[in-house]
Amino acid sequence: MAESFTAVIIEEDAGKARANFKQLTVADLPDHDVLVQVDFSTLNYKDGLVISGNRNKVARKLPLVAGIDLAGTVVESRSSKWNKGDKVIVNGFGLSESHWGGYSRFARVKSEWLVRLPSAFSTEQAMAIGTAGYTAALCVDALVDFGLTKDVGEVLVTGAAGGVGSVAIALLAAIGCNVVASTGRAETHDYLRSLGASSFVERASLQQKAGPLQKERWGGAVDAVGGLTLVNVLAQTKYGHAVAACGLAESADLPATVLPHILRSVALLGVDSVNAPLAKRERAWQRLAKDLPANKLTSITTVEPMSKLPELAASILAGKVRGRVVIDVTR
Ligand code: NDP
Q1: 0.90 cut: is pTM over it?
Q2: At what angle do helices 163-175 and 123-146 cross, to 10 degrees?
Q3: Cα 134 to middle of ligand 1, angstroms
């Protein structure tokens, strides 16, 4: 075990939360029952907020190690469920919020937070999916439970070229859905088509104020952006169908009416990944293992060193990251 290792620590500095690269030893880590040697973490929107100092109530218990995801190998365990050598994933569960996270070569975590790495994936591939991809799978599971099939007609994905959007498109296409991608970046159309999108909606067209009941078009939707976009998506959803909402890249506001819900039986399915129960997590990872082909996963992924996190954080907050960024915590 390395003597000391680099971690990204969020500390209070003159009333502001600041991200600093610091050297830690295993003795500095919190006392949970499983010690994991981390191979990779990821960059999610929430990580962007925390690293940029705009913690928006994300990092609440400072100081802490940032990084809401990690994948690696168990090196010590006081839990009967986990043994040295087991390959594991942690998504959410308060990492980087109230618990120390994954931007660190070693992490001590609670055994009940761990999900076994599916045999289909390496730790790098699991982090190429990360919280964003696993949330996309939770959204698809929610829609399928509501009744989504390939026969519902067009299914919309907003924030399409981002992490949640990219994976949602691939998973919906795997079911056989006719996937429409809403993006503000026309240059990503070829990329989105390669993931399974069949046509496109310009992001701005969903950001105009319009009526509460519009022409019915969507047989389902995964929304990663919230705000007026989500209001319009609900207003365009077909009678008796559902929208799974997980994000707020546009806005946390929802300036809507109840009309789509009470006149068209449209359902708004809220999706949280942080505290999702283990059974939901395992089901989502099974869907990813079954329906996300390695070539699509490779096409959405870039691997970056942890040392580049400050600029990567600014980039994801500016909506400039395409797909998913894996963070190599050894560099
Ligand atoms: P990304 O930054 O990778 O993607 C977000 C995408 O949203 C962008 O790529 C862009 O897509 C679009 N977008 C960005 N800014 C705006 C804007 N102002 N108005 C409209 N669209 C915009 O983030 P993730 O995919 O990782 O996460 C998406 C959202 O989901 C975030 O809000 C995140 O916090 C949330 N989330 C929630 C989880 C939960 O548990 N509920 C878990 C994971 C994420 P394009 O360029 O294609 O238009």
Answers
A1: yes
A2: 60
A3: 14
